[in-house]
Write a structure and sequence with these properties.
By secondary structure, the protein is of the alpha/beta class. It is 43% helix and 22% strand. The protein has helices at 8-20, 62-65, 105-122, 149-161, 179-191, 217-225, 242-246, 254-261, 265-303, 306-349, 351-356, and strands at 28-39, 45-50, 55-60, 77-87, 92-102, 140-144, 167-171, 198-203, 230-234, 249-250, 361-364, 367-368, 378-383, 386-391. A 5-stranded mixed barrel has the order 1-2-3-5-4. The radius of gyration is 62 Å and the shape is rod-shaped.
Amino acid sequence: MRASPLSVSELNEYVRRSLAGDPMLQGIAIRGEISNFKRHTSGHLYFTLKDEASRISCVMFRQHAQMLRFAPQDGMSVLLSGSVSLYTASGSYQFYGEAMASDGAGALYELYLRTRDRLQKEGLFDVSRKKPLPLLPRGVGIVTARTGAVLHDIMTVAKRRFPGLPLYLRAAQVQGKGAETDLVVALNELAALPQVDVIIIGRGGGSLEDLWAFNEEVLVRAIAACPLPVISAVGHETDVTLSDFAADVRAATPSAAAEIAVPLKTELLLRIEAQRSLLYQAARQQTDLLQAKLQQTLSALQHNRPDNKLKVLLLRLDNAMQRMTSGMNTSMRQLDTRVSGLIQRLKAAGPEQTLRRGYVIALDESRPLQSVTQVGETLTLQFYDGKAFVKTLRIEEENTL
């Protein structure tokens, strides 16, 4: 054991020299899938190579990067040649790449890009095609493997958020030959169930090859054509498949998919209660308003009741009849007085009084005689108390001035 301790820099430098001096770590090639790819403004490339179990940080300096004949991207499987060393500033070891070549999956990734671009131009991924998710689905369909963490995660989240909400599993092959066909059949079977309103389709993480069934055009088109909204939950957050683009919603994980598909029951109950309260208040206000209007209408009707108006009219008619009767009686009395006066005047000016004084009226039948020359053989003498029918003996005329 050394007597004096090493500084951090001395330790890192020692490890760096040890790694650099190990021939097993120089001039080697490693195979892996690119992730977290970044191209620095200096031209250096920084990325991670990963497989199913591990990952390692990598760097390719500009002088080597400019010799590449293709553009590296996340998801590509490559062969990277170089050596292992330690970056002493951070104390982390990394792979320094000097050459890079596609490793089969790179061609698969190129197929992925070509298919993506073609379907995108076709409009298969347009936002206008996306269907809204139901607020409270009658049931949630699940397309995934029967075993594994995906189904367990979805069921756990669904039970926590809305206990008792029906889940319908159609187990399907999610990897390997024929997986895309089985996935399409499973999707269509669940879409045909009347009790299912939304479907989650997905699987766990893996390499590009593992996830390739979800990049197959037949499945992508089936997801886009599905009459029910589809939530895609394929792989990890950094894994993006064509099924994610075609789905109505993409979830980063299966648990996130369940969070999206299954509403929170307590939250719904609170919203329902809030809406109920608002409806009650609105109904109460409307009822109060209608009651006020009804009271106004009743008052108006009471004021304008036909029987009340008829009573008023009858009272007015009775008053008018009384006034008319009183006026008529007064007029009749006045007329009677005038007639009596006229009768008295007529009597006073008539021949009766003259006849009472001894005078008579000579009549030829009923016509008064005004001259002796009008006298015939017979005539009638009108006294005040009767008539006398006489014969003419002779006639004597007298001269009058």
